[in-house]
Amino acid sequence: MSASYVIDPAPQATLSVAGSDQLFPVRRIWCVGRNYVEHIREMGNDEREPPFFFAKPADAVVPDGATVPYPPLTKDMHHEVELVVALKGGGRNIRTEDALDLVWGYGVGIDLTRRDLQIASRKIQRPWEIGKAFDASAPCGALKPASEIGHPSKGRITLSCNGTLRQDGDLEQMIWNVPEVISKLSEMVALAPGDIIMTGTPAGVAATVPGDTLDCAVEGVGTLTVKIGAPLA
Fold this sequence. Notes:
Helix content: 10-25%
Order of helices and strands: EEEHEEEEEHEEHHEEHEEHEEEE
Structural class: alpha+beta
Strand content: 25-35%
Strand order of the largest sheet: 4-3-15-8-9-12
């Protein structure tokens, strides 16, 4: 007997796959905070502290080429370009040496952040969701399978705004690499197929406003372009 819902279930959030009409189903979005030393320094935080994790809703994903409405309640939305890791497997207490076996592929993403709201929450020791987990806050380009590109541990990661380079780093600058991130996160929650992890951002984060075009790239992985649109009425 098929299930009967009292309301229509929400559509499955998905990411596209480069060169294919197949889709990757998104279960959860996990994000790593403070994983590049220069970004920690520019935000005025203690670089000796380890990275930590926060989440965004699965339906915050936005595809390559889309327009992202400028969100409400903020006057200071920032861009943070990141390497995205898409999982095909999961579990708890995953060993670092086993972690890459669980990776399906990689992509390029942006952790959009209502910085003023994030900072206000931090000052009164409240959760960050209001600053991080809003609608359309996780643009992500097409994924490329690890079976094709391998597991990138170095390579240039960039973001330009209206043609001006703002963020320019390298994956090898991560404090915690991808297998370490997967292993550490699996100590806190059970990971599963469909989870994606945004692995932190290099220095150069800055405000973005309606009309901006953000062009992102991770060497050997892919690109992502989104436009920041007007606020929704």
